[in-house]
Amino acid sequence: MNAWYLICFLSAIAIFIAYANQYVLKMQTTIAITTGSVVISLLLIISVKLLGDTTALEMTQIVASINFNELLLKGMLGFLLFAGALEINLLALRKQRWEITALVLFSTVVSTFLIGYLSFYIFAALGWPVPFIYCLLFGALISPTDPIAVLAIIKQLRAPEGISVQVEGESLFNDGIGLVIFTTLFSVAFFGTDANPADIAELFFVDAIGGIVFGLAMALVGHFLIINCKDVNIRLLITLTIPTAGFAAANVWEISGALAMVTSGIILGNITRAKATERTGPENTRYIKDFWHATDSFLNALLFLIIGMLIVTMPVTMGEIGLGLVMIPAILLARFISVGAPFVIFKRFKNYDKHSVKILTWGGLRGGLALAMAAAIPRDQVFISGSDLHDLIVIVTYVVVIFSIIVQGLTISPLIQSSIKSAEQSH
């Protein structure tokens, strides 16, 4: 069996879990697949370490040979961000542009440093003296939210539009900003880039602004081609060139492919789709939206299964799992502070739902992007108390993400219901 065959089989498993969930568990799909990936990981651990099953051992060896930096950060990520951006309603975002800007820029940066400092002291206190730059790197990868599951719950329960837009807008844009912060710190940590503020700021802004400008250029070309295209199938193929060739070009030119995908997706999903619908009718544009929605769900499902198998290849210890559990309240605290601080100011000028900060804190789920960035940390370069830094960060991140999606995702409903009641009482 090779890596391609394994990915094919994992894809089938992800689809089967999603299908069975409709009739058995009836959870939100992402939560069901995440739960399934945990169960499969545990079964593989038992098969390999307790039963000595050779097939399971072969599967884990194949996973260990995959270059996750190339597969996730330079491959799947482009599709995930572009698909997510196509779903964004630009008009709804404009109503809360200042709130979303603060959540994306201020909150992501503040969360990165808060988690960096907290993890620096917590890791050291529990016997893993991780250097501060790597703690900041952990803060950068765990700060961006990826609330695919909670968004589905928010829409299903018909939460107030303001909260829905805040969660949706923040989750999409801070993916791009978070990845830029991560790549900047990654360059300092592993490639010897000077750590002085001027060089870091230059690296950050060149990466970010370059990505946005390139995304605008791709969107303009894509817009012209799509609205003048007569074949509906070619329209879909044009959109496919953006997260493939476009994302690859951004990576080659060392600018933010993440922000390029977000920028292109928002323009094509709002301006181009509306223009194309006027010319050819909604039926000829709806199938493109449906295709990308299904692609987004499928790739997220596959990603969780792949990362779940990656954990099986690592020498996981109870100490590392415990470290992950200890970091959960620290990360939630950093999230609460970084999200709540801007609202202290905003509430002086505008009324908000009293549950907004609570929902943004508890509903700020971590997901595939955090796992992808953690898996991209090089192996066998840095060792902390005998543990590979790569394994340590991936395991801690995995514990946080699993708790985030399963526990927080399943328990966010009461907060949303309270928000709905408050909105009804105010009217």
Topology:
Blueprint: H1 3-21, H2 29-50, H3 54-65, H4 68-86, H5 90-95, H6 97-125, H7 132-142, H8 148-157, H9 161-191, H10 197-227, H11 232-252, H12 257-280, H13 283-312, H14 318-346, H15 356-362, H16 368-375, E1 383-384, E2 387-388, H17 389-411, H18 413-426
Helix pairs in contact: 1-2, 1-13, 2-13, 2-17, 3-13, 4-11, 4-12, 4-13, 4-16, 6-7, 6-9, 6-14, 7-9, 9-10, 9-12, 10-11, 10-12, 11-12, 12-13, 13-16, 14-15, 14-17, 16-17
Note down, in words, how this protein is organized.
The structure is a single chain. The chain is mainly α. The protein is 81% helix and 1% strand. A two-stranded antiparallel sheet has the order 1-2. Strand 1 (383-384) and strand 2 form a beta hairpin.
SSE ordering: HHHHHHHHHHHHHHHHEEHH
Mean pLDDT: 82
Rg measurement, Å: 21 Å
* Strands side by side in the biggest sheet: 1-2
Major pleated sheet = 2 strands, antiparallel
Query: How many H/I helices?
Result: 18
Q: How far is the first residue's CA from the last residue's CA? A: 61 Å
Question: How many strands?
Answer: 2
Strand content: under 5%
Helix proportion range: over 70%
Spans of at least 5 consecutive residues with low confidence: none
Alpha-beta content class: mainly alpha
- Characterize the overall form: globular
